[in-house]
Design goal:
single chain, alpha+beta, Nucleotidyltransferase, domain 5, three-stranded antiparallel beta sheet, 7 helices, RNaseH-like_sf, Integrase_cat-core, nucleic acid binding, RNaseH_sf
């Protein structure tokens, strides 16, 4: 036994050797202390042939971490694969925490690996509480100029009602778009408050809405 081993490890080793019947989850083989830790994912199906893990004292743990993460055969895997690789043969109480810290502090991983992020999740829906609260718009063109000098088509879609406005315009700029959007919004709000008139009355409603 090395003199560098912590007192707790030395004491456990001595206790298991002296009274093995009191420590069914530990055993000594070839002057090495093992801990019984079967794989829970297969324990109910078949016997885990690798259930006995070598119990690693504190002063040996960094070496185990390096060998199973930084060596060419280890491949600088992430914390999950590195943990699984080590846990297959070794055990100590803070194994998972130590693997996580070691991988996060690995300089090569920090310099060369792309940051791994959790999936963004499902797309959400924006709540629309009333007409014209959210409007999508776009400009199409230029097209061949019409007799009235229009070269573009301005399209608005009210996300609440799915009402679509398609308006020919001469210039594709923010001022024109804003003016037509406000006009379309006002007309639509008036139409939702009144029953749509027929015939000549329709023109009077349009004139009223523009005043």
């Amino acid at each position: 036994m090395s003199s560098l081993m912590p007192i707790t490890f030395i004491k456990l080793f001595a206790d298991v050797r002296r009274e093995p019947q009191k420590f069914p989850w530990h055993k000594i083989v070839g002057n090495r202390l093992y801990h019984y830790r079967p794989d829970a994912s297969i324990e109910d199906l078949i016997e885990d042939q690798d259930a006995w893990k070598l119990l690693v004292p504190k002063h040996k743990r960094r070496e185990i971490l390096r060998e199973n993460h930084e060596e060419p055969t280890a491949g600088h895997f992430g914390r999950h694969k590195t943990y699984e690789r080590i846990a297959l043969r070794y055990y100590w109480p803070s194994l998972h925490r130590d693997v996580t810290r070691y991988v996060k502090a690995c300089q090569i991983c920090q310099q060369c690996k792309v940051q791994q992020l959790l999936p963004a999740g499902l797309m959400g829906r924006r709540p629309f509480t009333k007409p014209w609260s959210v409007v999508a718009g776009d400009v199409m063109g230029p097209f061949p100029r019409t007799a009235r000098g229009n070269e573009y088509i301005l399209v608005f879609v009210d996300e609440f009602t799915r009402w679509v406005e398609v308006i020919p315009i001469r210039k594709a700029n923010a001022q024109t778009s804003r003016k037509i959007l406000l006009q379309s919004k006002k007309i639509t709000e008036l139409q939702s408050q009144k029953s749509r008139p027929k015939g000549a009355d329709n023109a009077s409603l349009l004139i009223e809405s523009q005043q």
